[in-house]
Write a structure and sequence with these properties.
heterodimer, A: Rossmann fold, Hypothetical Protein Yjia, Chain: A,domain 2, 7-stranded parallel beta sheet, 9 helices, globular, B: mainly beta, Methylamine Dehydrogenase, Chain H, 6-stranded antiparallel beta sheet, 4-stranded antiparallel beta sheet, 50% strand, disordered N terminus
Amino acid sequence: MNQIPVTVLTGYLGAGKTTLLNRILTEQHGKKYAVVVNEFGEIGIDNDLVVDADEEVFEMNNGCICCTVRGDLIRILGGLMKRQGAFDGILIETTGLADPAPVAQTFFVDDDVRRRTWLDSIVTVVDARHVVQRLDDSHEALEQIAFADVLLLNKTDLVTTDELAQVEKRIRSINPTAVIHHTERCEVGLDSVLGRRAFDLDRILAIEPDFLSEDDHEHDDAVTSVCLRTDQPLDGGRFTGWLQRLLAERGQDLLRTKGIVSIAGKDNQFVVQAVHMLLEGSFTRRWDPEESRESRLVFIGRNIDEAALRQQFDACIA
Amino acid sequence: MSLSAEPDKRSLHERIGTDWGLDAYVVGAAFLGDGLLAAALGDGRVAFIGGENTDAPSFVSVHDGACLSLAADVRGQGVLTGGDDGRLVSTDADGATTEVAAVAGKWVEPIAVSGASGLSAAVFGKTVRLFAQDGSAVATFDHANTAGGLAFDPKGRRLATAHYGGVSLWWAKAGSQEPKRLQWAGSHLNLTWSPDGKYLVSAMQENELHGWRIADSADMRMSGYPAKVKSMSWLPKGRYLATSGAREVVCWPFHGKGGPMGKAPLDLGWGFGAVVTVVAAHPKHEVIAAGYEDGAAILVEIDRPQPVLIKRPGEGAVTALAWSADGQHLAVGTEGGFVARLRLSDWRAPS
């Protein structure tokens, strides 16, 4: 059975999620989508299937305190797979107040979901005009930005160039790895939001986090990020042991983790990613003899003690 | 010795079966009278296949979307199907359809039918609806979360519903009531009531079973499965509960004092690479049909662990297995749209 790509669309109330959804559905791409929404809004295109979902967030009874999944999605995705060949992809629109973690974790935890679908990316629509205020009063808005693989900084026509630069800076300090697009009315090429394979270890080809210099930080958001780098190879056992322990102990605070690591004695890149405590890692392609074997590890989360993480990371150097 | 090591050996289906390609995911299958087979399909059709091997399938378009669930109706003359179009529909073998209930936007699965009381029930999201034999509405039972499993007790007087956080026990009658709750943390997806009425067993999101002894609500945990348990089937007289979710057919002993508590299950049909996806116990003998994720299917007896291959791998995972009430017909369906029927006349162990 073919695996179906799933794209998750998040964004705070009024940011433009439904505009993006309609744009995807009305574009002449010859593809059919199943769309999972929480209330039937002004969408519904002839060829596409719209499924009404209740966001049922379930705790997994597996000893992992922050491991929640979307029970309704597990059921819906299983049901959709019975309609073989009826659509080419699945779009999940979350409510404006949703925490993206349970959606993402569903794709790590449930074997049936993993076997039949893959999480392509989390796309977050941000209202350029109101996001600053949202970041001050809503932890959901913060988490939606922190989890994003693709960020649409939307409604750019409603802000000045300076304001836009300020907003982008603030978003970058929360999420240094997402691809950011500036949009008006969510006008963006569909290849920028679909087919990203953002969770595919083989496609995390390069993490080039866009970090700001220290003095650019003007706000202390509850969610921040840190990138650890080294040119020296790491000890494989020490690195994976440390990362597993760290996520087990601090996974509730660490929203997303991504890294490409050079392990001593290995010719291939070791790629890791995690959503909270759920960690995946594997060796992927060979290091190119021409490229610098720099290890890069990015954490996005709350209460990040950069100095402590850096010290622990450096202790993994072989 | 495993069957997969005998590539030349023909399967029972190849020797005595008949098969059809129905071009859609087989969601469920059930036998009606005279060997008439009904199958609900992922494209919304229901297929009926007559009892003779030469009979061609006839199709009825029932749901706008996919069929999600199927059960033979109380009379055994037709089927009830639930769809992702929010409809519960009764379909007779002659193709006549009657809408029993419809709730826009809700998916209808699963369905339970009690031959003892003539009642039937179906899940519409968070609401379970109870129907009389003539299809008239008897009661609705509301839940805080979507109900995943449904099971009548052997007399058809109580209805158990599985959901997040445990199971609710309802009286299968009209009037407002507060259900009895059997609590256990986690998401309960599937439910079965033992033929003696003493035990309820639910299959959970966490690759394990949870059981309750009704008399004292005592908990039983049955864990160790590598995959989710999607299918459970009681052997005659409820001596064992056969389950999917492992490479073996895991059978929990429910005979004797204390049920399965403190006992190890029987592991049958060992030797296949894939995980068991569906199990169906023979209605009269201690024989289990089991289907695998790779499309293979076997028959295995409780006291004779060497299985018989009834279908080779292929055509997608086995998604449906059904015995006729007399145990003389067995049907196998897969996600690739393959349906086979085997006529076993009187049971003797095939070799």
